[in-house]
Specification:
Keywords: Hydrolase. One of its GO terms (molecular function) is hydrolase activity. This is L-fuconolactonase. Its EC number is 3.1.1.-. With about 280 residues, the protein is α/β, with parallel strands linked by helices. It has one domain: Metal-dependent hydrolases (TIM Barrel, Alpha-Beta Barrel). It has 10 helices and 8 strands. It has an 8-stranded parallel sheet. β1, α1 and β2 form a beta-alpha-beta unit. It is globular.
């Protein structure tokens, strides 16, 4: 089984928010942790707090191209030209863009339509995007309908920051309704962080995951961790879905744990040496 983590941060500077690890986290530390946990590859998502932006992640992907690819941060400046976007994407290791709309200023950009130029360009360039959009699923649904060839991944099942237990999934019917768009997938990353006072294997979360899998299909649900804010072990993050989720067939398990993500991002994994069982 190929195991690909759909979101990990590495960084070498800046001040992380309190719910993340406070000290820098290098690619080499991550590789050591991946070996213990049984994770083969990872998508590096540059954290917003690092003053060097995409650089640490791109440097890691360039040192270890068989292990990492980057969904990079991108400033949605309306002055950016198509040529500039192509050059941004052409950086070695860059595989797509990750955009966060979880602050008042960025939410206003999405709601007002100020980012509309980017969706046109991303669709034309066949650029996959990950979107952090808690509370904004209607806008993502409209975006998916207007741009049917734009590959969209909704981050963290659209769970609001800090929400736990049943409160974390109050929006689930709205998310499940988006499965009607073939160009929308979901990232099931950070799941242990949504359990409320419950130890591994976090069984109260399993019914929610099962509903997501039933709606989207295993080929559009991507396991991940957001490791730097997890309080359980990396290995437990892996086995929560790969071993402990009931009724997940071997084929669907392979899709959720890595095959589906590599296909969606068109990330060539041929020839890599797997470390997991």
């Amino acid at each position: 089984m190929l195991v690909i983590d759909s979101q990990v941060h590495v960084w070498d500077g800046g001040k992380p928010p309190h719910h993340h690890r406070q000290s820098p986290y290098s690619a080499e530390e991550l590789l050591a942790d991946m070996a213990v946990a049984g994770v083969d590859k990872a998508i590096l998502v540059p954290p917003t707090w690092d003053p060097r932006g995409n650089a640490p992640s791109l440097e890691a992907a360039q040192r270890y191209p068989d292990r990492f690819a980057v969904m990079g941060l991108l400033s949605l400046s309306p002055e950016m030209t198509r040529d500039e976007l192509q050059r941004w994407r052409a950086q070695p290791g860059m595989i797509g863009a990750r955009l966060s709309f979880n602050r008042p200023d960025t939410r206003a950009m999405l709601i007002s339509g100020a980012a509309d130029w980017f969706w046109d360009a991303a669709e034309a360039e066949d650029l996959p995007i990950m979107l952090l959009v808690p509370g904004l699923l209607p806008f993502v649904a409209a975006l998916a309908a207007r741009h049917p060839k734009l590959r969209i991944i909704v981050d963290h099942l659209a769970v609001p920051r800090g929400a736990k237990g049943a409160q974390a999934f109050e929006h689930l019917p709205e998310l499940l309704a988006m499965a009607r768009f073939d160009n929308v997938a979901v990232k099931a990353a950070g799941l242990p962080g949504y359990a409320e006072g419950e130890p591994y294997p976090f069984r109260s979360l399993h019914p929610y995951v099962a509903q997501v899998l039933s709606a989207f299909g295993a080929d559009r649900v991507f396991w991940g961790t957001d490791l730097s804010r997890m309080t359980c072990s990396y290995r437990e993050c892996v086995t929560m879905l790969s071993e402990d989720l009931d009724h997940l067939s071997p084929q669907n398990r392979n899709l959720v744990m890595g095959d589906g993500l590599s296909r969606w991002l068109r990330w060539d994994v041929n020839g890599m040496d797997e470390v997991s069982a």
